[in-house]
Amino acid sequence: MWIPIQINESSAEPLYHQIETQLRSMIVSGQIGEGTLLPSIREFAGSLNCSAITVRRVYQDLENEGLLRTKQGTGTFVAKVEESQRGAFKQTLVMEALEAAADAAISLQYSKEELLDLFMQVLGRKYEDKGKGGDQK
Amino acid sequence: MWIPIQINESSAEPLYHQIETQLRSMIVSGQIGEGTLLPSIREFAGSLNCSAITVRRVYQDLENEGLLRTKQGTGTFVAKVEESQRGAFKQTLVMEALEAAADAAISLQYSKEELLDLFMQVLGRKYEDKGKGGDQK
Amino acid sequence: MWIPIQINESSAEPLYHQIETQLRSMIVSGQIGEGTLLPSIREFAGSLNCSAITVRRVYQDLENEGLLRTKQGTGTFVAKVEESQRGAFKQTLVMEALEAAADAAISLQYSKEELLDLFMQVLGRKYEDKGKGGDQK
Amino acid sequence: MWIPIQINESSAEPLYHQIETQLRSMIVSGQIGEGTLLPSIREFAGSLNCSAITVRRVYQDLENEGLLRTKQGTGTFVAKVEESQRGAFKQTLVMEALEAAADAAISLQYSKEELLDLFMQVLGRKYEDKGKGGDQK
DNA sequence: GTGGTCTAGACCACC
DNA sequence: GTGGTCTAGACCACG
Lengths: 137, 137, 137, 137
Hints:
The structure is a homotetramer. Chain A is mainly alpha-helical. Helices cover 57% and strands 6% of the residues of chain A.
């Protein structure tokens, strides 16, 4: 199976973290269904042009979060996630980002109205770009 | 002068970065006026319970951004910020946070309407809390 | 012949080891008598929903331990176990598990009395459940 | 600070796991107090005669369990653990080992009385050895 | 083939 | 000095 991951080499964000974030999104949003067999560590490392140990770390971290299940000698699979849990997971991820933005705005003494106005601009721009690759960092 | 900085020790965010972010906000938003003499490095380090080298880095970074000015043997002052520059600066900071949140939501396949709904919830909550310390990470 | 083996997929314990442990118990305890013809590798693999190579390994390991005997073209049989040998074998297996538990307790600085108390609780619980399938991992 | 860890090179148990188990015991049992600064990764690796990456893994796993807290550029510390949580943690570790032993005995068709008798023998032996190094695997 | 462990060393960021 | 990331490759265990 082919997994589309965008790597930003010039970013300060660690490689393993970029991969984790994107893979987590795809799993939690259901784009990669439960039970799916992911690429082998070596294969994925090859396609991402990084070392196997980096992919290993990604798989292990996500397994610790309960999103993956790995069987020695067999491969790594997407774990079963309760639907309710999935929804909560998604919402938490987005909520945190929204709250961080609101905190920043408040500490800069933006009013509620100013902030909402800015957000509407962002929404307009982002959802117009959607599909052209608007999800990379 | 007393500068209210909130340190979150358990956060993964580097210490110097937490301090920089908050100090930058206070300067750019005008909460600390032009020409204000900041605490000495040692004094500030003492009140933050961190090492002097960390405060030194904060002052230096903000000086490089043009927000502070250091006079040998005298101390560190808040520099003059052009009004136009100030607005642009503020907006950029908030904009980046909003865009990050929108990117996260889009990658999780949220619709524009769902996202806006979540944001309204956050706004309601955050602006209600305002003044009770809603700006720490 | 039907052999009741409980597979725990989510366990970290290797598949072949889970099977070996349970099969060994049944042989040593006499639940599967001497001379019994075990299922063919393919058949057993089918009923366990695992690969034939795994069952092959189990049979081979137990044959090396002297618990099984393979006759070319005929099948795999439970070997003769000396009564004295049987007792020693059983006791060793249990002894090792008890010692491991005691070591863990000692390293956590449990007193002899506390440990014994915990064990009595476990005994009460386990021997009450017995027969309802209390032997799977 | 000096941490006494016993490495069994000939064991099948992974190195990192041996270290984790022993360090976890010392933390949970209170032998290493809250807030204690552990040896640096490199120093510990040197004294254990293993690679730094292995110690790194140990520290990270225990941090994920909430037993350690690490601060970049500063070091790795024993985290604050609630007393109630600590007790539960200890009991769980021992309980699991006891249950595994009981399960083994039951599957070998030991009676409750036989098993208890064996355990008393183990207890006598182990608590006599205590202090002579009875906690290694 | 698969994942799991471990090494020796590099380079960076933080304090 | 500290921890954090990443590499290239080795060897083992599992299916």
